[in-house]
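We modelled the chain as a single entity of 169 amino acids. Its sequence is:
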Amino acid sequence: MGPTDDPKTNVLRRIGAQPVALAAGALIVVVLGASSVGVWRAYTGNSPEQERFASLRQMQARSTQASEQLFEKTKGLESQQQETIDQLQTVQEQLQSLRRLVAAQQADAKRLSEQVGGLTGAIDTLRQSFASTQSSESSDPPMARKASRPEARASRKRHAGTGRKRSKS
């Protein structure tokens, strides 16, 4: 067998001899493949561009929905914040009026304490006066006591008479 009898070399020789035929065959295969893909997409209705546009629309719809939800949540937070501020102001006003009431009660307590102090001083003065009166009566002679006592006896009789009348009725 000679070098020309080898089937492999014969095929290579034929291909090498006809490069235009080989390129044309490859081109026909590529065109047939591309057209079959195009026919398949047209038949099923799926194309990458349509899928991309559909996914892009979905992403836009989702982002729009997310933006609206974010806007609504922001509005909700703003209203909650305003309500909290209003409640805080109400509490502050109540606290101020409580402080005023406590200050007024403290002033009243101070005034009453001063009045009690004044009354205690007056009671002490009366006690001292009464004690000095009793000590001066005990140092007075018995005749002076009897002279000052008739008025007291008459007063006692008047009171005793009214007591009897009341008990009879």
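As a brief sanity check on the tokenised model: Residues 95 and 101 are 10 Å apart (CA to CA). The chain has a mean pLDDT of 80.
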